[in-house]
Write a structure and sequence with these properties.
Layout lengths: L1 H46 L5 H65 L4
Helix pairs in contact: 1-2
């Protein structure tokens, strides 16, 4: 029963984490699009003309580089958070395992003492 509950808890945390990842990435993507559009408008206003093809290509490459860098940062943050969550989960499991092992050891010792008290055959 405990294993099923722990499995459900783990699956729930994974679903929450994947939802959080999706939300973070969608938010970052929206911010990028808005920032890139504002940057393009500002640049065009500053120059007072439309971009040439080479300038537009360079602008798009700059945007791709910025998006890539930001997405990498977001992924790193999410992976670190998941790693911390997994470490905490493993520590909890290990603590329960150690407690169970101690209990089994105590029961085995009690059983051995009871067997020592039995009269010989």
């Amino acid at each position: 029963m405990k294993l099923k509950r722990e499995k459900r808890d783990f699956e729930r945390r994974m679903e929450e984490a994947s939802g959080e990842i999706r939300e973070r990435l969608e938010g970052a993507e929206r911010c990028f699009k808005e920032a890139e559009e504002a940057r393009r408008r500002d640049w065009e206003e500053l120059e007072g003309r439309m971009m040439t093809t080479a300038e537009r290509h360079q602008f798009e490459l700059d945007g791709i580089r910025r998006v890539s860098a930001r997405m990498t940062d977001e992924y790193v943050k999410v992976i670190r958070a998941l790693g911390e969550d997994m470490r905490r989960g493993f520590a909890e499991v290990e603590a329960r395992f150690e407690a169970g092992r101690g209990e089994i050891r105590a029961q085995a010792e009690a059983l051995m003492k009871m067997l020592d008290r039995l009269p010989p055959d």
